[in-house]
Amino acid sequence: MFYNNIKALEKVNKKLANKITKISLETCSKDLSAIKNENGEYILVKNEKYIDDTPSPNEAAEKIYLEQIKKASSRHDFILIFGLGLGNLLDYVHTKSITSLILYEPDLNILRFTFEYVDLTKYFVDGRLYITDNITDCINYISEKYLIDDKIEFVYLKNYLLMHTSEFTALTEKIFETCQSKIIDLNTIKKLSKYWIKNIILNATSDSETYPVNILENSFKNKTALILGAGPSLKDNIEKIKTNRDKYIILAVHKVLETLRINNITPDFCVVIDSNWVKPTITKDTKYLRNINVIADIKADNYLKSLPFKNFFTYYSQNNIFSNKLQIKLLNEIKALETGGTSTICAYRCAKFMGFKKIIFAGLDLAFKDDTAYCDGQIASANNSTSVKIQGVIVPTLEVKSITGEYIKTRADYAGFIKQFELLFAHDITSEIYNLSTFGAFINGMKYTSLDEILTPETITINEIIENLTNENKFISEKIKQASIEILKEEKRKISPLIDRINEWFEMYAEHPSFFDYATSIVTSITSTMILQDYVQVELMKFSKLVLSKNIEEKKEFLKELFITILNYSKNLDNLI
């Protein structure tokens, strides 16, 4: 029985299977045993404490399921089972649900003991069960599988929970954070992917001169960068920033340009990744822009191309298929860099890439100051206990730990950004990273201080450096444009036969029994095209889960909507390519 259980587990978690096989039955049995109740049910005992719920593990499993499971009801959803015991709760949940199941059992000895005496192989047959013994693997599994509309619910052995309360709390908190981040990421993709493709096509084929940002690599080795975000603390530091202007290179997000302009500060670089709504949020003084270099993501709003920036640098992200294709086609003359995520994160990545040693942030608060949301004075007025209104838009909120150690209110999506920054800084062992905020969210990996404490006497000039680099690369802009046109034309050739196949599918889907198999072959072909794959990437993720559904009408409706979206979009491509 043990051998068969291990073979089944190896298919979903080979690392855990290897761990269990290294434990002898004699070792795990020192603290573990099973006793039989009056109904003939076995109960797992560890150090004379019940692991399974008493007096009847089977009745307890039914009660726990009915109490805890309220929303997780589809194949896309998840039920996390905390504690294996002798498998009674797993058995009941597997029998009653159709969801994906995650069994979290931190005690390897319990796994070894139960694998010896209970046949668990049937729970692996339908591919719904994943077993892990640690939070990291659990989080990674959920992060990989979880989509926007999925639901996650928990069941647990009540006796076991009392022994592992802190671990259960840590697990649920980590899962909540992961789901929040995924929701933010997937909502962003769903909302903006249509803009991204349009902007990539227009930006890549534009006649305006542009340079890949990688030509700036190490151009400011060991210098000081000041990154300006849109948080309220920017205004708190504006006078000192102005006084010390020649001691650093400024990289500013585009939403702070008007604040800088009225305070007579001109940044060296403006960093933009926003794919739309740049026009209403950037300064209207185009004369002011003529002394500013812009760094814009390839997916950024094409409106930027109409503005008179001094020099235009394009940031090509590694997570973008077009950027990777262009890098290959141009034999690495452009480099696809790590994704920016937000304009402030992109500015940080640029600062790292340019070689800056000291990286100082101002306006990176990721929290409200009283009722002020941004440096331009926008107010976050209370809506209810869990949301505010900013310019008439309702924004969900939560509280995070602040620099002072107290809790401070912030936008719910900022919690995800805090984690992103902390992950970046944890891997940065070469930079000195500072934050001038005195009230904002605490971000691990930054030193909180004042500008006076950081700066050293030095004068940094930029114009000659930029002029030399652009002169050395004056022919790259046309090469990028021609290579981009070739890539996009190749993509268009791939799309044409797919459109024909989609039209064929519409002719037969209502009656033909193999409609879903044919649709699957079309979707598989879509994943080989750059433009369509990016355009409907969230829909493709949902399709991968729809394969498991037995609801024929659900499949038909989803595919109809997906294919109509593609057909409508293909009609617009002729105007872009």
User: Share of helix among residues?
Assistant: 40-55%
Going across the biggest sheet, name each strand in turn.
8-13-12-11-10-9-14-19-20
What is the number of helices? 23
Poorly predicted tracts of residues: none
How many beta-strand runs? 20
Mean pLDDT: 89
How far is it from the N-terminal to the C-terminal residue, by CA?
61 Å
Outline the biggest β-sheet: 9 strands, parallel
From the spread of the alpha carbons, the general shape counts as: globular
Proportion of residues in extended strands: 15-25%
Number of structurally distinct domains: 3
Structural class: alpha/beta
Q: Give me the Rg, rounded.
A: 28 Å
Describe the protein.
The protein is of the alpha/beta class and 577 residues long. It has three domains: 2-183, 3-Layer(aba) Sandwich (Rossmann fold); 206-474, no CATH class; 483-576. 46% of the residues lie in helices and 16% in strands. The protein has 23 helices and 20 strands. The strands form four sheets. A nine-stranded parallel beta sheet has the order 8-13-12-11-10-9-14-19-20, with helices on one face. A four-stranded parallel beta sheet has the order 6-5-4-7, with helices on both faces. A four-stranded antiparallel beta sheet has the order 15-16-17-18. Helix 12 links the parallel strand 10 and strand 11 (269-272). Helix 19 packs antiparallel against helix 23 (552-576). The model has no long low-confidence stretch (mean pLDDT 89).
